Amino acid sequence: MLSVQKSKWVLNLLIPVFVAVLSFFVLSEKIPQTQFVQTSLESVEKSKTTVMEFAGATLATSLAISALPDDFASPLAESLADMNKYFIFILIVLFVERLILMQGIKASFLAIIPIGCLLYAFGYAIRKEFFINFGKKIGLLGLALVLVIPCSTHVTNYVGKEYLEYVDETIHDTQKGSDTINEIVLSEDTEQTIFEKLSGAFKTAIQGVKDLLQYFNNMIKKCMNSIAIMIITTFILPLINLFFFKWLLAELFQIKFAVPDVAKYRRKKDVQHHALADHCVLDEENE
Predict the structure, then answer these.
(1) Residue 27 backbone class (left: φ over 0; alpha: ψ -120 to 50; beta: rest)
(2) Rounded distance between C-alpha atoms, residue 283 and residue 287, angstroms
């Protein structure tokens, strides 16, 4: 019969090996196909489509405003065109999230988590704390990679549903505004001024350049609000979730992340400096 201490040692050695084998042969195939992950992937694809539609709508509106007479709205058109840099950033984030969902989760179960478990088992077998902690950190990285994006998309869909509807409404209004301006510019009706046509088309009290600029300023503000919502939902929320899971898993597994001891390094440098100074004084006395 094995002693209690020996049995505990064997279990602490075999459990991480079992988890590594389970992760490599079973979880790597099952988890990416679950409804939880597939729903997250669909959400990311939908967000990507929304961003591309938004970018197209703002660019079309920018071109439409530029076509208005006297170039009075050129600064507004440039502001709309400048929004493309935000759309590019959001698209890059979404492509990274899509890559993590399609390849990163599987890679975590195939490599990162098994390597972390095996390093932990190896460190426990040879009683080396370095390998045990290093294995824990790698396993933490793998678990965070598996959890952060799917959880972020589900939280966004649950909490930010109202805000995402605001974004869809903004895209619709922006595209509609672009189409309306193009129709007015191409219209052959010369009995009304451009401001009268815009006033009737947008159903606002546009009577001059000032009113028209105010209308488009409000449109730009709405677009900027929507961009802020998209940055929060696609970038900020995943970051918050990443730090949350990092903290949670670190607490569960009692992982301490080493921080360089700057004070100790400075003390060592001071000791070396004083030793060198004393050596120089002795040399001078001997001379």
Answers:
(1) alpha
(2) 6
CB 130 within 8 A of CB 123: yes
Alpha helix stretches (DSSP H) within 25-127: 28-30, 35-66, 74-82, 84-99, 105-107, 113-126
* Cα(55)–Cα(227) distance, integer angstroms: 10
**DSSP for residue 205:** -
Residue 230, both tokens = 């998209």
pLDDT one-digit tens code per residue, 55-74 = 988 888 887 777 666 565 67
Tokens of 208: 């001059």
pTM, two decimal places: 0.76
Residue 182, judged by CB atoms within 10 A of its CB (0-12, 13-18, 19+), counts as middle
HSE of 105, CA atoms in CB hemisphere, 13 A: 25
Please report, as a single letter, which amino acid is at residue 6: K
